[in-house]
Amino acid sequence: MMFRLKDLDILGSKAELVSLPEGKLLINTINAHSYNTARKDGLFAEALTNGDVLIPDGVSIVKACRWIKAKSLPKERIAGWDLFEFEMNKLEECGVKNVSRERPLTVMFMGSSQKVLDLIVKRAAKVYPHLKVMTYSPPYKPEFSEEDNKAIIDAINAADPDLLWIGMTAPKQEKWTFSHWDELNIHCHVGTIGAVFDFFAGTVERAPVWWQRHGLEWLYRLLKEPKRMWRRYIIGNALFLFNVIFRERW
Predict the structure, then answer these.
(1) Tens-place pLDDT, residues 130-156
(2) What Å distances lie between residue 222 and 35, 61, 235, CA to CA?
(3) What contacts 83, CB < 8 A, 6 or more positions away?
């Protein structure tokens, strides 16, 4: 399939998060890196195109949509962290109101290492005290076996969470969730937000607010981790510009 930014349905603003319907909902993010990847990965492109909600996690996506006069014209960047805070605060508020209920509201984190997940549980107990936190750390390998997939699906279905976060980095997290969507017998919002696991756990420092406001969070990450991020941001950003100018504009 031809993956084109100008044809995607992208959420317009943070304010629109309030209007998302309840129930089982797959929420993905798109930025310059994931756009580049989706152009050469058919399943990833399908996952981003056919998920329920796609949020613009990059100033480059917001500006490019305006420049090419895309179908969607998002007004602002909505970072994965913004989605995380909105959903977690919303569920915490529900937990406060329903403190007497027999079954506590549950949020599940699937992905990352057990070390990161333990830190998430510890911090969540302080920040979101009315939520029950469940976790699952999948095997660290490029591809899961059928047994691995069944174990993950069974764990999620057994938890029956009120909110589910998938964190295995893009494109693995989006492709896995999309491919197994019909096997997940759940009723909640599902967000694919890999980097947020580390931000919330405190294992990776997020850029200061000034960098975020000026659309430079990518540069901050590049400066902090040049060996790991140079290809993604230097080559990747140049490729994104090329694709927007020569593949999307005309």
Answers:
(1) 999 999 999 999 899 999 999 999 999
(2) 18, 18, 12
(3) 17, 27, 29, 55, 191, 193
